[in-house]
Amino acid sequence: MWKLAMAFGLGMTGTAMAEVQTAVVAGGCFWCVESDFEPVPGVIDVVSGYTGGNMANPTYKKHDGHYEAVKITFDSAVIPYAELVSKFLRSVDVTDAGGQFCDRGNAYRTAIFVSDAAQKATAERAVAEAKAVLGTKVVTPVKAANRFWIAEDYHQDYYKGTGIILTRAGPKKQANAYKFYRESCGRDARVRALWGSAAFPG
């Protein structure tokens, strides 16, 4: 009910108005970024999709030029955009220009898509700060947002799925198959190795 109230700009007491904004980021597999950010206090919704390219009506099988990305709807009175971007950078390998973890190719590169000058300035500061903290080049670009295409229904909340998926380790419940994929891909291990105690999720 709290998230529903925020989505309509209503505080639970009726006295505080939510400041609903959106952020679009690409961090490799969109299932993983969605699962990282949905539990964050102040986040109202996270939707998986495609953006950054010119192809109309992209699909999972054909989205040439697009990144796998997520659109995060959030209450900036609870979690400011700067904090959201900082968490995002600490949830990915910002030094990898060829994809993320076991997912290789342009669609799996990292990026922050900004909708206005304020977001651009904030994102650029966050990238510069990440570079200073790590002491190495950060390849995550800050790019102007273009149309965000929502991915197929079966990609939404994939990490919560209850169906049966055939994996290299045999049939698994979808939520368990997602965990198996994420662990096998080395996502969390690499993020912890890069960011240490600052890794997100912790």
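the 2nd protein, sequnce then structure:
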Amino acid sequence: MMLTADDWPIAASLLPLGNAHPDAHAAPGAVAARWAHDLETVWEAGFDDVDLTDSWARFGDLSPGELALLQATLGEIGLGAPSLSAIRRSIIDEVHGADHLAYAHRTIDAAVELGVGVVSFGLHRALTPLQAQQLWFWTVEGHRDPIDDPDVWNLAVTRFRELGRHAADVGVLVSLEMYEHTFLGTSASSVRLVEDIGLDVVGLNPDIGNLVRLHEPIEDWRDMMRATLPYANFWHVKNYTRDENRAAGFVSTAPSYLESGVIDYRTAFAMALDVGFQGVICTEHYGGDGLSMSAANRDYLRQRILPRGERPLGTSRVRQQYSDGAVR
């Protein structure tokens, strides 16, 4: 059965809600109260599902009791947790890579305990001190993976393959998040990485908003979508305005609603449906009231973009128009 606007899982990112990881010095009951407050806020914003973003809690570091508490809190509030996003812990970090790999394994195990079906990993690093000082961190360059180093590339392949095999053993999908200046920083490199890993349970999280926001030349978003969507098994969606003057070398970007940014999500989702995408969607946003922006983006997808009823995959009007030569 194909998902429709009524039942497609659209999860709220927990990025806007800060750090709620248990503090050893907190008063008894403080963790439970904080988690309940934050998750109730997500529910009150109209979400049925939440993406367990590990900037909110380091799920791979929670004790069995804490995982049970989180699962109980989600159940009491009535929120599902179909996805988990583990961010800024690169498994090829020169210093901490082995520790991050171990954390990723624990995160997969935590996902199983919480009933999560897909875990998103990436190769992006912690923000540099200079990035952290900016209004928008992407306006200052951070770490760059050594794109031409075959040994580091093979390390990424080997470690992600290890995670993929673990995930396959416990019935979880792994999704690799596209992110600037990493081995997942272009559509071609992202596709090559997944193909080199060579496991059906490992796919892409085509979060091209991470690339569209860059103050530098980028691939056309349509080309990125066309290349990566056949490998997509989860999707962070967000959008940005983008103003370019290539002759002057000027680029300016800022977060926006899904419907008003440079990525046309109506076309992007038509492309996704054409290749059979049926993954969890996570709405993200930076700045301001990020949760309300995420909720507005959820409503945009449900009310105007996602399919209203069943139709065969691969038969969208967009594809028919291109095939018939009606659109150029």
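The chain has one domain: 10-324. Confidence is low (pLDDT under 50) at residues 313-328.
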